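Please decode residue identities from the backbone states below.
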């Protein structure tokens, strides 16, 4: 009985940590290679030190978990400071959507909830 309780506690702990995962950072040079090649892309621009960015990371990880085919990338400008300027990002978190041809079609500063994100993914045909 003790082993079963320990095992169930372990599974519960794994499940709790699975639900609190954030998106992993993608280096901008790699992200740039994907943009403009026939599929829309959603860039989340933020930093590990930013509380709102962390919340967006959790939200986007949940969205990605529910819809694994969505092209969502996280750019950590805490590690790639020059990229913030190259992207014209003045505050974080910033979300940028690129259409299939690589044109920027949407930009938002601040947090977004899952309902708004779902609407954006539908509007921009992800």
């Amino acid at each position: 009985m003790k082993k079963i309780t320990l095992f169930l506690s372990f599974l519960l702990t794994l499940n709790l940590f699975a639900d609190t995962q954030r998106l992993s950072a993608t280096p901008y040079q790699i992200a740039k290679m994907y943009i403009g090649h026939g599929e829309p892309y959603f860039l989340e621009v933020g930093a590990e030190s930013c509380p709102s960015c962390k919340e967006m990371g959790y939200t986007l990880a949940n969205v990605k978990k529910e819809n694994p085919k969505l092209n969502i990338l996280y750019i950590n400008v805490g590690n790639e400071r020059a990229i913030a300027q190259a992207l014209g990002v003045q505050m974080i978190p910033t979300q940028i959507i690129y259409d299939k041809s690589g044109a920027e079609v949407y930009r938002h500063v601040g947090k977004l909830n899952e309902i708004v994100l779902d609407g954006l993914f539908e509007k921009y045909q992800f």
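Observation: The chain is about 45% helix and 15% strand.
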